[in-house]
Design goal:
Elements (H helix, E strand, L loop, with lengths): L9 E3 L14 H5 L3 E4 L26 E4 L3 E3 L5 H25 L8 E8 L31 E8 L7 E6 L2 H8 L10 H7 L9 H15 L1 H6 L2 E6 L4 E5 L5 E5 L3 E8 L11 H9 L7
Helix pairs in contact: 3-7
Bound molecules: succinic acid and fe (iii) ion (FE).
Length: 295
């Protein structure tokens, strides 16, 4: 399977309905490192929901308002009635995202596990963050506290900005090139460290060699300003009303601009892919000629 240069990362699908449409069997595009954009697939707000396009619904602790499962709303503040309406809105997005992935990726049907859905009400510009949390720097998604053990991160995003502002992204080079670039700087974990992190509840499960490598790649990319400036990359704007789908553990991405977005995360085992060899786990294992998960 060939891997796209940054300028060629985007693929456009014409679908205008979540539940039905002309596109299907797009697994090979997604696994090949493309971002699938659907410029005619908006998330339609119900009457009254425009009021949720406002950061003041955030409780100020988390950068997103998220729905875990179908009923656990996190990061929001408001009256019980408002929070119920906000939850219903995010739940509707989660259901539509599920319909979309079931339709576009029949190979994954019954295999994708839905994670959190979120509403992201804050403007991207002007956020003050540590470099590690700074998503305006190119990165692949990897989380310090949440080891993935090779499981894929598939994300559905929709720009719901009400005043025409695009969500501005940058996308980078193919995962294998990125991994090869930083491979000489990767270091093995200190023996016993994964056990200690888990024992101290810093991680939710034992961090695998895969997670250790992915976290280093995340950090090496974000901390390398020369790489940020000069690595192969392309700017991509997602207009309001556009939905896009990406393996965010594979496609180097950065968010540069925008406000108000919906997001749904799904998890997929590499073995359930059309071509499991495209998974970052398998790419890294080939690169290092070693297994990165315990049997
Ligand atoms: C990210 O996953 O890095 C952020 C994406 C976004 O906020 O548009
Ligand atoms: Fe990210």
């Amino acid at each position: 399977m060939s891997t796209p240069a940054p300028a060629d990362v985007l693929r456009t699908l014409p679908d205008s309905r979540w539940e039905q449409g002309p596109s299907s069997h797009a697994e090979h595009l997604l696994e090949g490192g493309h971002v699938l954009q659907l410029p005619q697939l908006p998330f339609i707000l119900a009457p009254g929901e425009e009021r949720f396009l406002d950061p003041t619904w955030s409780n100020g602790k988390a950068k997103n308002i998220s729905l875990r499962g179908t009923s656990e709303l996190r990061g929001a503040q408001g009256t019980a009635a408002d929070l119920a309406a906000l939850q219903a809105m995010i739940r509707r997005f989660a259901a539509q995202a599920q319909s979309l992935v079931d339709r576009l990726f029949p190979q994954y049907r019954g295999k994708l596990r839905a994670g959190n859905a979120s509403l992201r009400p804050f403007p991207v510009e002007g956020r003050v963050q540590s470099w590690r949390q700074d998503d305006t720097r190119l990165h692949v998604d990897a989380f310090p506290s949440n080891p993935m053990h090779g499981v894929r991160l598939l994300r559905v995003f929709t720009n719901i900005n009400p005043s025409g502002r695009p969500r501005g992204w940058r996308v980078g080079e193919p995962f294998a090139d990125f991994a090869a670039h930083f491979a000489p700087r990767l270091r093995p974990a200190v023996p016993g460290a994964a056990w200690v992190l888990h024992r101290l509840h810093i991680t939710k499960s034992r961090r695998s060699a895969y997670d250790h490598a992915m976290l280093q790649l995340h950090d090496l990319a974000k901390s390398d300003l020369a790489y940020q400036a000069s690595a192969p990359q392309a700017a991509v704007d997602f207009a309001p009303g556009t939905t896009w789908v990406v393996f965010s553990d594979q496609v180097l991405h950065a968010v540069m601009a925008g406000q108000h977005m919906m997001e749904q995360t799904f998890y997929l085992q590499p073995a359930d892919q059309l071509v499991p060899d495209t998974a970052p786990l398998r790419v890294l294992e080939r690169q290092f000629s070693t297994r990165l998960l315990l049997a």
